[in-house]
């Protein structure tokens, strides 16, 4: 059988032969055999040709049999059998549901109890306050004035200087409650003074009882709100006597920690960043006695519930807890029930229905189309703006921010932007300029819609309408704050999505007493009538079959729904706030009838992988741990499992629109495991390579089946990477981490990480370092002459180039100097051709981005994913470089014909009419090459990196359809004293694709002359004016380029096109390698830290990252091993070189690919590789003490035995405690945490590689 042949002969011949032969031998593991033709599967294509002996049995046949497996796996089995091999997914989903905490609702918290309010202040200010535990004790009366509150004189004077006359309604009621020690739930609109509502009682409590450490903890959902609270606290720090510190994401932790350690008793934090500090025990919350949740609803909207619950485990139970929120949904009620003790519920204003501040005058401008918005914005600013006005403009997308800003600046209106693509420093600078009046207009996305309190905003303009009426209210709530009057203008188109949104906005305006304009009322009446008709139609469609369609990202789900519904879809919410649901009716081909389509999405992987027994007595036992699937943190916090189970309960069909690669297939089966009640025969798979209307409609009309074998290949790789990486990492971390931290001065190092992909990747970098260190310099000589040709001196090079023989050079000089003339021998002409590029695949893209654009592989793929989901390029993960015969080249080119940068080149190419589908390249059978999907000018991109990558992809595509470059290399050869010299120049015959890729001209290093060389017959004599010899020393190579590393990984099978970027990132994150600019003479260049800021480094490299001397990123990025990386690699070379060299991983990757092809069985592959690595592990561990010299410094040797102990260790190591998923490697295999960080796809690809 093919498998037996592959196992017996392929492993020893492929792996051993490849290893000993310097990776030139094959590691395929294929057995010899006859090819067989696969059968035609139902609803599928005919099988591919087999490449091994096949007996037609599962896992034992050749490639053709593998295709039969795919068909059989879906066509002849029931649900249980079709999902065999994925039991762990179903078990994890079932276990998660069983363990999910039951939602407890406290009736008293749901709504205000029926009681007669008698307090005059509460009646006047529309305040309701009650005990949530049903207590009949009276609620403390409000402080109507500052004297009633008995504020300390310094604080009172500060308030008066700030212009505060009396407490706001929420302040007046919560202050006395908090002064009496009660917990509080405060529900009030934004801008109601909640910040001082919780700060003033905190000052009182801290004054009354002094304790060292952080005493007041304030949690906020966004960095903008956190910094705003911190600013407010800092404003009154002198008067109160209490300073504050603030920690949030987006800035280095080392810059925030000193303020905390300086002893600030108030800490303002976002949950994610605070958890980072708590994980490394940099912050201690044991002294916290006053805890505040601000904008609690927003925190839950953003999925922070798991982080909040983790934080609560570190806070003392004896504390006073406050929860403030603008709304009171069920999730916030549950959180309050869990963490507050018999709180008093305070409701300021009417929160039962959505309403806007009555101090805001609202206007709606109805526009004929979205194209009228720019003119309307300028008109609005001319009417209501001005140098002393502060205008906040909201747009829907980040890229529109910059486009609108440029438009306003052209109109001489000062404007700035704030959105999530800006780093924290840029956002803070934009806010500062806006607050100080340096810019009068701030253009923002919804990142600024909640929590920000910018005093003096006189006008809010909704350039794009908000996604919901609730968001609209929060947007316009940025003006009219603290009792001031405000104004808002919303632009709405009379048709499309805006017309539906007009209904909710009109209702908000009417409640606030604002006039609804007649043209808006007409639109609202028309849409209300349509809604009524739709509801009547819906009742007729209630009995239609329902199809649940699942994409990988919310943005892709929305795009699919828009295209397939023709824009006629309905939006509704489900269990998860992170993903949306779109509904529409459509003909569903597999059902052969009209169906109700329910479109939603995941947010990447649903499951991770972990050990069942994470703390065995002997860590070697983990090799045989059965492992378990676990629900990812992101999945849990966003309620993805509940979301799918609820939707699947009403679905008759399931159509999977996950990304079309092996990882996407694996996620398909994760989704299937959550939708177990959908019949197996009703589960379909869409195959697409671009998010364009033709591609998506084609996929919808030609649905296939999920690929079980591809999904199993991913599972095999996950298990191998988890076990092998984890076990070796635990061993090395336990034994040498403490020594390494001290020896190499790496304070933040948390593990010594090994990975079967990561370590060979490091090995490539170390090998180049060794080559540099072992380089022996040699002096070489290059004779040259100057010959007079037609009155002009030309420099001729020695035809042999150079020599290391000094005696030969001396003899040449003697003979040539005696010959005063040069004899013409010939004019030699050599035709040269530079082939046009083949189609662009992922590896080529990564190499080009690193070398020419200064982008790391991870950054490149992140940008490429964003371009893909935005519809600018096709799917960016592919190995194929050949265009398919069905690819419409002319249409793709015509799309670019009017582009301002390359439109002329494309138009000329189209006019020639000689476009042919290139036959070069390689078809791997996955996705087509990466191509542009639509034309976009520079101004359409908010980030320079997006434009640079799009520019390269488009130019590469155009170049691949243009002629080759053809030129002639001409050499005038003369003889001087018996030695031949040549003058070389070039004549271009066809510039070809250089018009699209002009930078390639530099690579050719052509000498194109602008004068004509005179005709010289052989035997002609020319005067020799000078002879000289240039000498130099050979130089060592530069450190390995990142692009070279990617090419080596691809060549030797280390990782896949999808995982290579993460492997490269991992060796940098582990402090094994640093990225530097070009060096010189064996020295490394300037270090390029993350973020692009100028780094500290040695060497003579002139180009720097970020703001270096040249102000540009280096042309190339070089991988320089650190001392730790060199020691780590040397340690494995010492005990078992195979563990760090490429062949063993290349063989493993090949076997996983064969699982996907149906050649090998998943369990056989896992067991074989586990057996191999287990044997190596025991041998490695038995000689571990030999590695002391690499990690233990001389002054540590005396203490080494006392630290290590003698037994095996099976616990968490490194950071101590916890499961492996939460320790050193940034998570188990799966989800965003794999390998230390996710790709653009929302999932990491590489575990401990």
TrEMBL record:
> Which region is the signal sequence?
none
Q: Known Pfam families for this protein? A: DEAD, Helicase_C, Topoisom_bac, Toprim
Q: Which reaction does it catalyse?
A: ATP-independent breakage of single-stranded DNA, followed by passage and rejoining
Q: What is the superkingdom listed in this entry's lineage?
A: Eukaryota
| Enzyme class of the recorded protein, top EC level | isomerase
**What InterPro entries does UniProt report for this protein, alphabetically?**
DEAD/DEAH_box_helicase_dom (IPR011545), DEAD/DEAH_RhlB (IPR044742), Helicase_ATP-bd (IPR014001), Helicase_C-like (IPR001650), P-loop_NTPase (IPR027417), RNA-helicase_DEAD-box_CS (IPR000629), RNA_helicase_DEAD_Q_motif (IPR014014), Topo_IA (IPR000380)
Q: Look up the EC number in the record and give it.
A: 5.6.2.1
Q: Compositionally biased, Gly residues: which spans? A: 1225-1241
Basic residues bias located where?
1090-1099
Q: A GO molecular function for this record?
A: RNA helicase activity
Q: Where is this motif: Q motif?
A: 144-172
CDD domains, from UniProt? DEADc, SF2_C_DEAD, TOP1Ac, TOPRIM_TopoIA_TopoIII
Where do the DEAD-box RNA helicase Q domain residues begin and end?
A: 144-172
Keyword Isomerase tagged: yes
A GO cellular component entry from the record: nucleus
Hydrolase as UniProt keyword: yes
Residue ranges of domain Helicase C-terminal in the record: 379-524
Annotated Helicase ATP-binding domain residues: 175-346
Concerning SMART domains, the annotation shows: DEXDc, HELICc, TOP1Ac, TOP1Bc, TOPRIM
Please state every residue range assigned to the domain named Toprim.
546-691
Domain Topo IA-type catalytic spans what residues?
707-1177
* Similarity section: Belongs to the type IA topoisomerase family.
Q: What does this protein do?
A: Introduces a single-strand break via transesterification at a target site in duplex DNA. Releases the supercoiling and torsional tension of DNA introduced during the DNA replication and transcription by transiently cleaving and rejoining one strand of the DNA duplex. The scissile phosphodiester is attacked by the catalytic tyrosine of the enzyme, resulting in the formation of a DNA-(5'-phosphotyrosyl)-enzyme intermediate and the expulsion of a 3'-OH DNA strand.
Q: What is this protein called?
A: DNA topoisomerase
Per the record, the gene is TOP3B
